[in-house]
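agent> fetching stored inputs for the 1,3-dihydroxyacetonephosphate docking request
agent> found them:
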Amino acid sequence: MSTIDKINQLRKERDAVILAHYYVDDEVQAIADYVGDSFYLSKIATMVKAKTIVFCGVFFMGESAKILNPEKTVILPDMGADCPMAHMADIRKINEAREQYKDLAVVCYINSTAELKTYADVCVTSSNAMKIVKSLPNQHIYFIPDENLGRYIASKVPEKHFIFNDGYCHVHTSITAKNVNIVKGIHPRAQVLVHPECTMEVIALADYVGSTSGIINYVAESRNKEFIVCTEMGVLYELQLKKPKKRFYDAGQKQCSDMKRVTLEKVADALEKMENVVELEEGKRLAASKPLERMLELG
Ligand code: 13P
Ligand code: SF4
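agent> prediction call returned; pasting tokens
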């Protein structure tokens, strides 16, 4: 039996739904029931009826699905697929900022551990951060863990005072303005599409800035035929499915090696053995669910 047949049989037997992020390998995206950006996937996780969720993504994604759905079994095909940025914030500094600014809102990018989320007032993703930050009554915003996303949002919400944290994504910061300009020099008609985890110098070159879904939707609606893609190139699978005649160029970025740890074999294996189940201590789950649920309400 092929691995895909095995997955198809097991997903019925285990009453499982397979969610995948746009950065996982093409063949994994191809067998998923739902593929999307972080916000879409966290919303879908609360809406599906299946008893089991197989999350083809990195650890914080499976963890968030479990936080929002304690009654479901959430499985990660590879427990070691972990976003390094999810750990990049210091709790001591968060507490100090709370002491310093009485009306502080700690805004936590969903790319964060459950532990970090327990210190947050609200979570955001790259597709809803601007809307949510604008809607908060607080004047002072401590944005964790991604400095680049924080700076981008701050540039769009100048009426608020931001405190930044020094977390970053090694994939998006591997994209340099110099490389984007070189590719633009070769393909002058190409529009530059940028994920807001990139640096402000790269963002300054963008024709469009947005989440993975935002970038895909922009291409689908644009009359332009060529694009320089400044995010993880896993998005190419969906871009080429939607617009096979358009041309896409990379900017020499790294791959997300953690997302690429998810394979079809690991999906089949985890479903067969029902292993790699995400577990969370109930007190921590409850505390982390508050900012996530607030995001779903506001986003
Ligand atoms: P999106 O929410 O845009 O899909 O981003 C997820 C991510 O990990 C970006 O590095
Ligand atoms: Fe984390 Fe960057 Fe990979 Fe996204 S692309 S999961 S932020 S390391």
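agent> quick read of the result: The radius of gyration is 19 Å.
agent> awaiting further instructions
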